C-alpha cells in the first residue's frame, strides 16, 4: 500500500476496521474446489497457498453455516524470486491445507485497491516468507561484499576502502564492464572463496568520483542459488502457525537490542489490526 499522507493512513485504518473477516474467510472457502491441494502426501512436492503446483486430494467440506476454522500455515522448502542461477531473493511459500489463504488475501487486496489505497502493480500476488535478501546485507555491511566460491558456497570479504561510495557500489555489483564469468572466477589461493568482485589495485590512486545524475540506483548482489534450493527443498521452517490477525504495519522492521547491544529480534511497527477467528 501507498500510505505516505496521514489522511491515507486514516482511510486505510478505517477500511480495515470495517472488514468482515469471517465473511471473507467463508467466501474464500466457497470459491475453493471440492478437490483441493494438500501437502500431506509423502514423496510429493507440497502444494502451497500461493497456487503453485502440487498434489491434489479431496477433503471433506465443512458446514458453511459454522464459524470458519482458523488459518493454520506451515512453511516448507526454498524458492527463488528470480532465476535460480542469478538471484538476490530466496523465500519459503506458505502452505494451507484448506486452500483458503490465497483467495482470502486476494479479497483483502481487492478491497484496498477499490478504495485507491494500493499501488498499481502489473504482477500477481505472491505470498511468501523471506529467507534471504542480499539487499539487506549490502545495507547492514557496506564495507563487505558477498562472494561465491567454485563449489557454490557463499562467503563475505572486505571491500577495498577506496574512500568513495562509488567504489563500494562497484564491489557490490561487479564492474559494469565485466561479464558474469569474470565475476565468479575462483581464487588461486587455498580455500573455496571467489575473488572479490573488483580487481582494482590498492596501490593505484582512487579514480575521480563519477558525476551522479538523478537518484542512485539500489545495488543488489546476485548469486547462483541452485544448490541451496536443492539442499532445503524439504526443509520445514515452521509448522502449524496460526494467523491471528490482519494488520497494517510500517515499512521496515525495527530492531530490539539487549543490554549488551546485541539485536535479539526485529519487529514491524503495527499501526492497526483486527483479529481473525
Given helix and strand content, the structural type is alpha+beta
Shape: globular
Number of H- or I-type helical stretches:
7
Q: Please mark out the parts with pLDDT under 50 across 5 or more consecutive residues, or reply none.
A: 32-44, 53-60, 160-202
Strand content: 15-25%
Question: What level of helicity do the residues show?
Answer: 10-25%
User: Gap between N and C termini, in Å?
Assistant: 24 Å
* Rg over alpha carbons: 23 Å
List the helices and strands and how they pair.
Elements lengths: L5 H13 L2 H10 L4 E3 L18 E3 L13 E5 L2 E2 L8 E4 L1 E2 L5 H14 L14 E5 H7 L3 E5 L5 E5 L6 H9 L6 H4 L42 H6 L4 E7 L2 E5 L4 E4 L5 E5 L2 E6 L2
Antiparallel strand pairs: 1-2, 3-6, 3-10, 4-5, 5-7, 8-9, 11-14, 12-13
Main attributes of the structure:
23% helix, 3-stranded antiparallel beta sheet
Describe this structure in words.
With 277 residues, this protein is α+β, with helices and mostly antiparallel strands. About 23% of the residues have low confidence.
Quick rundown:
The chain is of the alpha+beta class and 277 residues long. It has helices spanning 6-18, 21-30, 101-114, 134-140, 165-173, 180-183, 226-231, and strands at 35-37, 56-58, 72-76, 79-80, 89-92, 94-95, 129-133, 144-148, 154-158, 236-242, 245-249, 254-257, 263-267, 270-275.
